[in-house]
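User: I'm putting together a teaching handout on how multi-component assemblies are represented. Below are the sequence lines for each component of a complex, exactly as they appear in our records. Could you produce the 3D structure of the whole assembly as structure tokens, so the students can see both representations side by side? Please keep the chain order the same as the input.
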Amino acid sequence: MEWAENATSPREVPSFEVIYEDYADFLYAALRRLGLSPTGAEDALQDVFLVVHRRLHTFEGRGSLRSWLYGVAVRVARDHGRRRKIWARFFSSEETEVDPAAPASSDPQRALEAAEDLRRLDQILGRLPAAQREVFVLIEISGLSAPEVAQALELNLNTVYSRLRLARQEIHAVFRREQETGND
Amino acid sequence: MTEPLEPSLEKLLRSGGSERLRPGAKAKVRAKIQRHLLRLRVLIGGSVAVALFTLVLLLALFSRTESQEAQPLEPPRAPAALPAPSSDAGTAFAPQEVGEEVQSATPPSPPNLRRDPKAPGRAAAAADPAVESPPRRSTLAEEVALLARARKALEGKDPTAALEALEDHRARFPDGVMRLEREATTWMARCALDRRAHAPEALQFAETHEGMPWVARLRAICTLTN
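Assistant: Of course. Below is the structure of the complete assembly, with chains in the same order as your input.
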């Protein structure tokens, strides 16, 4: 395809189109867990791939393509988060992003449960400071290794582990509190 | 060492990674990316063509001016060998007229393009080789300032002034970071001017951007009450 031209590196990096096919859904999930709404995440995904298209030739296969892509996604998510805050400052603060109803599915009950799970998860993740949330999402949800996250976010590996530990402590605490109040 | 995650929490986390783009969204985002890349290509191609054209003209002009300036430095021939002064010879050595020729031969310069009120942003981007670079912080601040001006005007019940600010933004940052917010605010301003005329399109816009933080406000401003 025309849009994929000039986007392949000589070092066997997959073409832009292949990367889009393989990663669009996973990066979308990560963008959602980083706090973007469905529409916001789609918009951000577009920006992620524009950056990928522009920079793919600079990726020389020294590190993992996956961590590079997630690194781009995290940075774009930060930008979009800033935009959202700016907007909230401009207009009334009671406006918050509302997720649309669960997507249609052959099993509506299951779709509703899945949507409820995601809402709950995002609520829990929302309790984390942004820096911890990024590390936690990439490792525990997107399945990256700590060294990959260190590369993606250009962080010291120890910092990654430290943020992960703090995030897990907080998530555990929130989750347990939630379950206790749910059982009461 | 960190304690292991509880099974129910692990299940919840797995569900977080399994979310996928909505049906049709993958193709929609791909189409948007293609459109954006095409626009960039046209923009870059156009700017390269203009730059080459300008360069060629300047080179031609420079070599011509040089050859004209070199002639008076040649050692004078014997007076008898000089041809009778003619009007042609006069113009060839008249510096002010060479200057006039330079002016008339110079193609429209980029600064003139930049002053085009219809597309200053695009022209500036076309002249800028770093057109693909992500917006700098100062650019974002400028975008924000323009949108703030629009918002202030809207709050001050002056939707026309808001639209002017938004047009400024559109002209300067057609593909700016805040483009979606600009469009949303444009619909708000239009609805404030004539709700009946703009409500259907504005509400359609809100529907296609369900979940964005400004949707509720857009609906509140544009929904017809009776």
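A couple of points students might notice: Chain B touches chain A through 47 residues (CB under 8 Å). Chain B is about 70% helix and 0% strand.
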